[in-house]
Design a protein that fits this description.
3 helices; about 15% strand
Amino acid sequence: MVKAFNHIYASALTIEGQPSGTPNRRALAIAGNDAEANRAVTQLIDRFGFDVVDIGPLADSWRIQRDTPGYGPRRTADELRRDLAAAQRPAPSR
């Protein structure tokens, strides 16, 4: 299982993709525990026209949830990495 696509609108997938190597290409984050599955999703996202930032295991996927810096806005890979690093884990629900 790989967490991906939760921080981009479906319509943006069809209009924002750009060829690999394009300056300021939008990046999408993934998180997963299986390296082979992560590679497959990375290749798919690249074919859709986006760079990939691997967050790490699923346990760290909270970094790209709603109300975190990288959720929603268009980000390059460097910008997304910065936002993921700045994300603060929400307090546990009571």
